[in-house]
Amino acid sequence: MRIKRLAAIAAVAVLAFGAAACGSDSDTPSTPSGESPLVAKAKAGQLKFGVKADQPGLGLQAGSAYEGFDIEIAKIIAKGLGGDAAKNTYVTTVSANREPFIQTGQVDIVVATYTINDDRKKKVNFAGPYFTAGQDLLVPTASTITGPEGLDGKKVCSVTGSTPAKRIKEKYPKAQLQEFDAYSKCIEALNTGTVDAVTTDDIILAGYAAQSQYAGKFKLVGKPFSSEPYGIGLKLEDKAGCTKINEILKASVTDGSYKAAWDATLGKSGTPAPTLDVSKLTNCPA
Amino acid sequence: MDVFLDPANRQAYLDGFLTILKLTGASALLALVLGMLLAACRVSPVPVLRALGAGWVHLFRNTPLTLVILFCFFGLYSAVGVEFSEDIHINNYWLAVTGLSAYTAAFVCEAIRSGINTVPVGQAEAARALGLSFSQNLRLIILPQAMRSVVAPLGSILIALTKNATIAGVIGVAEASSAMKALIESNGDQTIAIFAVFALTFVALLVPVGYAFSALANRLVVRR
């Protein structure tokens, strides 16, 4: 008995060791110097993208699949890196875990309504921006609110701890800020009239307003009071990858795939595709 | 750890825990009173009251607290129109206290009812023989003895309530876990340090409560 058990343990150990060896082989594909490790991963079909799962039009999880503009951008990137977009793996990220996910390698690339700012630039590298959003207000169709100045004493909803919520607290302290853990709850509260407005990036609000159950009920105020350049996050030291992704974005404007990505997702609400200003792409510091 | 060097972040952290204490204080008082009433209902000779007490306990003890608190906002306030204040923060605070007390009262009720069972039945019989009414019997004879035997379980309920108060965050009360989320949002690289500080603060607040209730239970217990 004892000998059998020992043999079994030995077999398991050998298997585990072998598997571990395989694992490390495939995790770090050999990279020609100067080329981003992303290229090899893309060719092996192993790219992992961090995306949002709860934002209609941008990154929304429907069953086991993800859909939205961010997902289309991820597909363009995978294709541009020489991979097969159908082999992309998507991982749900929330605002709070995007930097840690990139730093620890749980995802390779983050395309998740990820605003480029100086604090984040210290932790991750940004390609893009592929879109510039602005904080705006979503109000019921009959509302008389015309901008953030009209929020005094009004109830405005946003997500706990988010940048838009922080901005309301700091710049418009007379507004009454209701915080929930998800925008969907804010929209529900707006629908029942419990709050007077919902605030976050205009593109996210447009996605909610375009959902069929809310058709005709809400309108976007249309006066953005911030600028949120959405970047593509990757490892801080991967300057080559960042440069490569910027080239891919440039090419996607020329070959029309950027516009196609927009039209297939956010464009459905009738908003024409924005022009991507390629001169504003980051210079990928490292 | 440098996230806590910023005075604004430190303030958010302190405000978060202050809110937890305020939620716990108000809810603990209300839950104790409500729990006692419910326990009285459950042992009363009136069937309707017994059913009311049992229904309350079964409903709230078996519902997730998140659901109860969300209902307070979307049901009580949004749909029914129960409003405590024009100010959204005060209103949300009292909605959360309502949910927390209703939920915790179910546990308090069951603890007290178990305490009532520790009082020898002869005590109640003797009181009745002396001509005491049901409420006099409960107030003067049963509850004073029952409460002394349930100090320790009430302490556990208070500790659970303090931690449960973080759930008020789902309707936008700026309590400790919301403050933690906000800090992590802008300091994603220090997640573990932030978690550790918040967790240890809870431990530091609640360990003494545990000891205090054990000591109190030992002093008050009715030795038979």
Compact summary:
Chain A: Residues 1-21 form the signal peptide. With 286 residues, chain A is α/β, with parallel strands linked by helices.
Provide keyphrases for this structure:
heterodimer, A: alpha/beta, D-Maltodextrin-Binding Protein, domain 2, 2 domains, five-stranded mixed sheet, 10 helices, 37% helix, 23% strand, globular, B: 224 residues, mainly alpha, MetI-like fold, 0% strand, Bact_solute-bind_prot3 (chain A)
Protein architecture, described:
Chain A: One of its GO terms (cellular component) is extracellular region. Chain A: This is Glutamate-binding protein. Chain A: Residues 46-269 form the Solute-binding protein family 3/N-terminal domain. The complex is a heterodimer of chains A (286) and B (224). Chain A is an alpha/beta fold and 286 residues long. Chain A folds into two domains: 37-133 and 228-276, D-Maltodextrin-Binding Protein, domain 2 (3-Layer(aba) Sandwich); 135-220, Periplasmic binding protein-like II (D-Maltodextrin-Binding Protein, domain 2, 3-Layer(aba) Sandwich). Chain A has ten helices and 13 strands. In chain A, the strands form three sheets. A five-stranded mixed beta sheet of chain A has the order 5-1-6-13-7. The longest helix of chain A is centred in the first third of the chain and has 26 residues, at 2-27. Chain A is globular. Mean pLDDT of chain A is 85; it is low at 17-30. Chain B is globular and about 70 Å long.
Helical percent range of chain A?
A: 25-40%
According to DSSP, the number of beta strands of chain A is 13
Question: Biggest sheet of chain A: strands side by side, in what order?
Answer: 5-1-6-13-7
Q: Look up the CATH topology of the largest domain in chain A.
A: D-Maltodextrin-Binding Protein, domain 2
Estimated radius of gyration of chain A: 22 Å
InterPro entries (chain A): Bact_solute-bind_prot3 (IPR051455), Solute-binding_3/MltF_N (IPR001638)
Signal peptide (chain A): 1-21
Pfam family, one (chain A): SBP_bac_3
Domain Solute-binding protein family 3/N-terminal (chain A): 46-269
